[in-house]
Amino acid sequence: MEKPSFVITGAHVVPVVGAEFDGGAVVVRDGRIVAAGPEVAVPDGLPVVDARGAWLLPGFVEAHGHVGIAEEANGPAGNDTNELTGPDMSAVRAIDAIDIDDEGFRDALSGGITSIVVKPGSGNPIGGQSVAIKTWGGRTIDEQLISDSVSVKSALGENPKRVYGGKDATPSTRLGVAKVIREAFVAADHYRAARAAAAVKGEPFERNLGKETLARVLDGELAWDQHTHRHDDIATAVRLAEEFGYRLVVNHGTEAHKIAGILAEKDIPVIYGPLFTARSKVELRDRAISNLAAIAAAGVRVAITTDAPVVPINMLVLQATMAVKEGLPRQTALEALTTNPATFLGFGDRVGQITPGYDADLVLWSADPLDATARALHVFIDGAEVYTWDEDALRGVTVPRF
C-alpha cells in the first residue's frame, strides 16, 4: 500500500544528527524522508505542511516499556508482563501478548513517541524476548513491527529473589539468580554446538525454542537487556556478559554512576530510569535524577525510559527536561530520546533522526520539546498523520485504530 508523500516547510528543524536549521524543507515520499535541509526546495506536486512557528523533531523512542502487555485500567486480565511459572522464560515473546488498543499507545502519541521496545517484566532471571514496534498505524501488532530481533530481557537483584524465594524455589538469592543465567547459557552453547554438528552430518535435530533464543544472544543477533539497579548487580551483569561474550545493555542503572567509568571503558550503554518514582524498594535508595548527568559525563552512552506504565509514557520527554535541569547536556538528552535507544537495540538505521532514507516518523511541537510547556501538535508515523492536537477541544485526537 502506498504511503503518504508531502513536504514540511517553515519549521525549526532539529534533526538530532546534524545542525538544527530554520526554513528549508523536509521532503517525505512514500512514508520515508528523502531530503532535509535549509536549502532544500519544495518539489512540485507534493502537498505542503506549513509549519511556521513550530519545532520539528524525529519521533521519540521509548527503549524499555511494557505498554500493551501491562494494560492500563484492565486489571489482572490485562497483565501479561511476567510468565512466572519458571525462572528461564527465554522461549516467550512479548509480541504474543501485546494489545495494540491499550490506552498507553494513545498516551505515547501525545508525548511525541513513535517507537517503543516492549519487554517482558523483571520477575524472572530470564524473562523472554522483546519487540520493537511503532506506536500506531497497524490493524494488528504485526503491521506495526520494526524488528522482532531486538533483545532478551533478564533481571538481577531483588525481583527474581522475591518471586522465587516466596515459592521456596531457586533462585532465592543473588547467587541463585546468577546460577540460573549461567546454566542457561551453558546449555545454549552446547545446543548451538550440537545443532552445528547435526547440520554438518545432515542429521535431524530437535529444536528447543528457549535454547535457540539464547544461542542468538551468543551469536550477537539479540542484545541482553539486563534489569539491574545496584552497582554490585551491574558489576555482575558485566561479569556474566564477558564470561559468555554477549552484547549487554544495562536497563534502569540506578547506581550506574558509581561504576560509570567501568561502563564507559567497556562501552556498555545504559537505559536509565524511570526518573519520576519514589524510593519504593532498597535498590532505589540512591535514585536521583542527577545520576543520569553523572553517568553521561563519564562517557557512557545513555537513553531514558519511563518503564511505562510505571511512569506514564507521555512523560518521557518531561523526564529528559528534568535531567537537563539537573545537568544533562541538551544534545545528550535529545540523543537519549532518539538515536541512542534505536542504536542500542539494533534499529538505528530506521528511526531516531531526520535524515534521508529514514522512516518519516516526525513530530511537530509547539516549541522546544524540552520546554515543559511544549505540546505535540502533529505526529506522523511512516508519513501518516496519526495524532493531532485539537486546540478548540483542548484534547488530542488519534486516527481510528480499526
Give a summary of the structure in a few sentences.
The protein is of the alpha/beta class. It contains ten helices and 21 strands.
Taken together, the total number of domains comes to: 2
Strand order in the sheet with the most strands: 3-2-7-18-19-20-21
**Rg from C-alpha positions?**
21 Å
CATH fold node name of the largest domain: TIM Barrel
Q: What is the number of E strands?
A: 21
| Class inferred from helices and paired strands | alpha/beta
User: The biggest beta sheet, please?
Assistant: 7 strands, mixed
- Principal-axis shape equals globular
Mean pLDDT: 97
* CATH arch. level architecture of the largest domain: Alpha-Beta Barrel
What proportion of the residues is helical, as a percent range?
Answer: 25-40%
Gap from first CA to last CA: 17 Å
Q: Pick out the low-confidence regions.
A: none
Strand content: 15-25%
CATH homologous superfamily grouping of the largest domain: Metal-dependent hydrolases
CATH top level assignment of the largest domain = Alpha Beta
Number of distinct helices:
10
